[in-house]
Specification:
Length: about 325
């Protein structure tokens, strides 16, 4: 059995996506000396400060947690150098790391990124891949450099995307897949056998951060594009439309095999638990709908309580 040298590692991450990576390193031969997360943010109606998922898990494991508001060298360099890091591991941290910080760990920093680089660099790779109708995605372990998600790649793993996969399910699976791949990569780095492959810049695409406005549907688009947007924006910010002056959040949808000759945006079925809307070609069936400020409902329950008859046109 080959003995892997133990590395001193800090994990940079904030949301749930990074927790499997933290857990994998806690279970490894290496020593996690700290977690670095975004500052606690107010949440909910009471606007109470809430810990991110990584901070919650790190505190439960007895780890110190650093939460700098800014990564200004004069303010935080001493604290990071005191950790005597061999390696930094980044997974959905949410801040751009300055060069001085990348240079602190002896072996630099590596990142768990939720796409098959060089495609879908940026903040929302899973959501953008689903919206684009991709049939597969994956996770890439890469070296962190100053350019966004542009560092050389160390390992990849692939996950198919099925026609009804939503972004939360895909992201959950990639977090687990990436954690296992990351653990293998860290061992390879520690043993001096990691290999790095430059990215092909000509193949790179950008996955821009999501905004609420990304959810506004254009019913003249093909049914498949509408379905992809609805599932790609689940669980946030969600696709939405309007009817009778009210905003409706479309949580889940399904493709139908029927043709629709009505104008795009026309409700073509609104009975017997079936709610379907005409698109640029064909129609999409709405499975879960939520009127803004109200509870989430199945299409059947929605139609019992809200009158949107066939023929209603959604803008």
């Amino acid at each position: 059995m080959v003995t892997v040298p133990s590395l001193r590692i800090a994990v940079f991450g904030t949301p749930a996506f990074a927790v499997p990576t933290l857990d994998a390193l806690l279970a490894s031969p290496h020593t996690v000396v700290a977690a670095v997360a975004q500052p606690d943010r107010p949440s909910g109606r009471g606007q109470h400060l809430v810990h991110g998922a990584v901070k919650t898990r790190a505190l439960a494991a007895g780890l110190p947690v650093l939460q700098p508001e800014r990564l200004k060298r004069d303010d935080v360099e001493a604290a990071f150098r005191a950790l005597e890091l061999d390696l930094g591991v980044v997974a959905a941290y949410g801040k751009i790391l300055p060069q001085w910080l990348l240079d602190v760990p002896r072996l630099g920093m590596i990142n768990v990124h939720g796409s098959l680089l060089p495609r879908y660099r940026g903040a929302a790779p899973v959501h953008r891949a689903i919206i684009a109708g991709e049939t597969e995605t994956g996770v890439t372990i890469m070296r962190v450099v100053q350019a966004l998600d542009a560092g050389p790649m160390m390992a990849k793993a692939v996950r198919p995307i099925t026609i009804d996969d939503t972004s939360d399910v895909v992201e959950r699976d990639l977090a687990r897949l990436g954690a296992a791949l990351l653990a293998e990569t860290v061992d390879a780095l520690a043993a001096g056998r990691a290999q790095e492959t430059p990215q092909d810049e000509a193949l790179s695409t950008y996955a821009a951060r999501l905004t609420r406005e990304d959810g506004r549907l254009t019913w003249s688009e093909p049914a498949l594009a509408i379905h992809n947007r609805i599932r790609g924006l689940h669980p946030w910010p969600h696709a939405f439309t309007f009817a009778d002056g009210a905003r409706y959040i479309l949580r889940r949808s399904a493709l139908t095999h029927e043709t629709a000759t009505a104008l795009p945006g026309t409700i073509v079925h609104a009975a017997h638990g079936r709610l379907a809307v005409a698109c640029g070609d064909g129609a999409v069936r709405l499975v879960e709908v939520q009127r803004a400020g109200k509870s989430l409902m199945s299409a059947r329950d929605f139609l019992r309580g809200i009158t949107l008859p066939a023929g209603t046109i959604l803008p």
